[in-house]
Amino acid sequence: MTLTAEPATEGPSASPGQDDGRRLTWSLALVVTGLLALIVVLAAINVVQGTAAVGLGDLWAWVTGSADQQVSAVVVDSRLPRVAAALVVGIALGAAGCVLQSISRNVLASPDTLAVNAGAFLALTVAATVGLPGLIFGDLVLAFVGGLAAAGVVFLLAGTDYGTVRLVLAGTVVAMVLMSLATTLIILNPIEGQGLQAWESGMLSQNGLGGVRAMVPVIAAGLLVVLLYGRRLDVMVLGDDAARSVGIPVRQTQLIVLVIAVVLSAAAVTVTGPIGFIGLAAPALTRLAAPHVPGLHRHRALIPVSGLAGVAIVLGADVLIRALLGAQRAVEVPTGVVTSLLGAVVLVWFAFRLRASRLDDASNALDVRGVGTKHPIALMVVLALVLFALVIAAVLVGDRVFLLGDFMNWATGQAGPIVSNVMGARVPRVLAALLAGVALAIAGTAIQAVTRNPLADPTIIGVAGGASVGAVVIVTFVPMASFWVLAGASGVGALIAAAIVFGLAAKGGFATDRLVLIGVGVSFASEALVKLMIVTTDPWNATKALTWLAGSTYGRSYEHLVPLMIALVVLVPAIVCGYRYMDLLSVDEDTPRVLGVRPARARFALLGCAVLLTATAVAAIGLVGFVGLVAPHAARSLVGRRHKLVIPVAALLGAILLVLADMLGRTVAAPTQLSAGLLAALVGAPYFFWLLHRSRRTTAG
To answer: In the predicted model, is pLDDT for residue 308 greater than 90?
Structure first.
């Protein structure tokens, strides 16, 4: 069963012959008038909010031409450009999201979930960090190329399963990788990339109306084109066969509309940066009203109304953050942080409204089984030797390279001060990567087994994000707290996130699509909360946010590893002892009951161990993705589905992946150090893409 929305055009109400023309006109007029009135009110409130005192009376005086020069300067130079940016970005993203949902017939498709915004931002980041000219239309071309390339990769990975969660998952992972690349460039070029980190979340602040004025013709032309294709889109939402039967060139129309949607998204990113989830929430909410408003299901009405809804959401988010934080503190808060929180709620909500598939359905191609090897012990020995060699290499290389003899002298206490100092800082980092890799891999193995969901990575399903929120709360508000307090807060955050994700997913029997969508929503919400805490408490120190969101072993000492070591000593044996339960739970829900196992109790115990392992790993090195996803998959492909073998192989692979990522981060750009999480994403993502591509071919076959 695929993840699809019930199209508003189905049924007799979609027939033009049965529409009451007068009711249709008045209903649409009422909706549009209401949205315009809301936009005017929000714009007026937005104009009077700010650090300079401008009231509604001053605004009215400016409108009537009787305001003094100071008020006019504030309104024209500061407030109006911000409102104008909200107008053009809201319309562009709302319309782009609407047509993307239509051509894919997936209400979760948007410039965010299809990685269009991330690709556009990466292209602009490359231009800013390497010193390309910053002309506005040059930026638009770069953003368009980046967004189109990203969308092409997403559709290539998803295949023809546009209506499934595979499309959203592919876009989310591609966006993660592209944002990792952008963050890496910002770290490598701190001067050239100054200000890009805040702009990454979407900032409405403008230096005059120049940028907005330049984008208006582009957005207007894009809207005109998609409106001209409105009648084709009306038919295409009913299916490719229905469209072809009336002579519509489906693939040509999809390509043209996709290109225009990318142009609209690129224009929005050029003006404000990637403001998240407007292209998801605005058209999705508009479609919910379509069955109750005659004529709104037609794209020539749906597209502009979605654009107006996008404007209302952008302005509403900006007004809300200023009202809650005050004008002065809200200056540094990206509007996209608030819209990302809204998008997270929308994702979770749609996870319950849409039909979802279970992993044990025959139609699901991402099976947990592997072919296995005839010599698992020999494989483990080889992996252990690879890990040992990699650990030695990681200890010896970095911004300063040592010989094996230097390490032996340090180990026996005979090294000089330089070697001792460097080794004293480097060895704990390597151990942190090794231990965290083991913890994340085993946690991912347990989560995937008990949920029967091969896509359930501690990062993707939000558990690691919750842990990062707990850790950043302590770092931000109690900076002098001990590392034990930090680890405890991380554990609490992970448990809360796990309770939300698994508690909500359990109501649907741990359906694969529902669990993934809820987890992705919690992940987005966690990232937004971390950024919000940083910018509202210490806006000039974005390094703390990068540390936790990107994952880093920098500055780790043996003290920081103690909670992780204890967690591994206590929790890993508990998970290993439960390997038989994992074997049974990974089959189906009935087999454990037949053999006398209580699935709920076993699932709760194993998930609790996995969540605590994730929390201690995040407390030790921050948020690291893909390790808990890639390592269990690779292990099952090597030794089969018996968890007695999967657990140790996954642990070795997780340690290898994270130690390798940490070593590359310390060496490829030395003396600048890249975080282990960024490199883990770049190393682990290709395997994940291959997994999606393989499953696409399996489905097609």
So the answer is: yes
Q: Does the reported pTM lie above 0.85?
A: no
d(CA 699, CA 353): 25
Surface-to-core class of residue 491, CB atoms within 10 Å of its CB (0-12 exposed, 13-18 middle, 19+ buried): buried
* Tokens standing for residue 231: 């009648």
Per the domain annotation, does 593 fall within a domain? yes
Indicate whether 331 and 458 sit together in one domain: no
CATH label of the domain that carries residue 320: 1.10.3470.10
Q: What is the pLDDT of residues 440-468, one digit of tens each?
A: 999 999 988 887 777 677 877 788 888 88
Tell me whether residue 363 is in a domain: no
Residue 223 lies in a domain: yes
CB 127, CB 25: distance < 8 Å? no
How do residues 650-699 score in pLDDT, each as one tens digit?
A: 999 999 999 998 888 888 766 767 777 778 877 777 777 776 666 655 44
Residue 688 domain-assigned (yes or no): yes
Domain carrying residue 678:
426-700
- Tell whether the model's pLDDT for residue 229 goes beyond 80: yes
Q: Which of 329, 353, 377 is the last residue of a domain?
A: 353
Q: List, as one string, the DSSP characters of 557-598.
A: -HHHHHHHHHHHHHHHHHHHHTHHHHHHHTT-SHHHHHTT--
Nearby residues of 655 by Cβ (< 8 Å), 6 or more positions away: 387, 433, 434, 435, 437, 438, 441
If one counts the domains in the chain, the total is: 2
Same domain? 456 vs 310: no
What is the chain's mean pLDDT, rounded? 78
The rounded distance, in Å, linking the Cα atoms of 291 and 325 is 38
Q: How far is CA 129 from the centre of its chain?
A: 23
Name the residue among 604, 278, 308, 572 with its Cα closest to residue 442: 572
